[in-house]
Amino acid sequence: MKNSIKRIAIVGVSASGKSTFARKLSEKTNLPLFLVDSIMWKPGWQYVGDEETVSALKKIIKQDYWIIEGYISKGAQTYLLERADMIVYLDYPRMIATFRYLKRWWKHRKNPRQELKGCPEKFDWNFLVRVWKKVEVVPLNKHLVELNVQNKVIRLTSLRKTRNFVQKI
Q1: 8 bridge partner residues
Q2: C-alpha angle with apex 150: 149 to 155, nearest 5 degrees?
Q3: What's the DSSP call for residue 116?
Q4: Which residues lie across from 86 on neighbouring strands?
């Protein structure tokens, strides 16, 4: 990876594997990793609120080195995407994200993910439908075009492309 890449945003459909990918990328690049879920949620799935989330993200984004992954609220997304040197977009087929959601729910229904202490996964039909329909794709694509940051986007559309990307770093 180029030495000029110091700030990486990882975006994509819910349950596409952004956190797992971000951990691997952080290990290979030694860039500090910030998981948005750990910023947004307190134990018991208590949302800290848009204002606190955006404020925390803006402090991180001002730093010189980072990998930030996750669902980014609209209030911080523009600043994040403009400041990032690279935007990695996990844009997998709906079957992959749907399978990963079900797998994540089953695995973490009793033992929460490390970034979500005190927040065991709960199965949610509406969320499953959102993942299946890839509802985040249209607004995300639109925002990337509006910001004119497509030259920084690396769109990974398969697991093989993702593995190759990580190996080449």
Answers
A1: 67, 86
A2: 130
A3: G
A4: 8
Number of alpha carbons in the 13 Å side-chain half-sphere of residue 12: 29
Give the rounded distance of the alpha carbon of 72 from its chain centre: 8
Can you tell me the distance from the alpha carbon of 43 to that of 101, in angstroms, rounded to the nearest whole number? 20
Which residue bears the tokens 């973490």? 108
Task: Quote the pTM value.
Answer: 0.91
Helical spans, DSSP H, in 17-91: 18-29, 36-40, 50-61, 74-83
User: Over its length of 169 residues, how does the chain's per-residue pLDDT go in tens digits?
Assistant: 556 789 999 999 899 999 999 999 999 999 999 999 999 999 999 999 888 988 999 999 999 999 999 877 776 788 899 999 999 999 999 999 999 999 999 999 999 998 899 999 999 999 999 999 999 899 999 999 999 999 999 999 999 999 999 999 8
Beta strand spans in the chain (E): 7-12, 33-35, 41-42, 46-47, 66-69, 86-90, 153-156
